[in-house]
Fold LysR substrate-binding domain-containing protein.
Amino acid sequence: MRALDKAKLPWTETFIGGGVTAVVAAAEAGLGAAPLARRIAPPGLIDIGATYKLPKLGRSKVMLYSRVSDAAQLAALRTISAAFRKIVLAA
């Protein structure tokens, strides 16, 4: 929304979802456009950025919070976190 405002492009909020799955479903139903990374957009959606001269999406941050204190669970969580970081940084 900030990118659209900065580019002085008018927009209207038509859907507020509880996560990526809900937002994708709304976009697939034709309720509007959704700012999705190409790697998570399902095949049925198309990139309309160039057609409508939309601004590029900025980078986003993902934070993982946990109260895990068990050593084995903490090790597993660190492994998952490292794998996620590797995938995201490679994109």
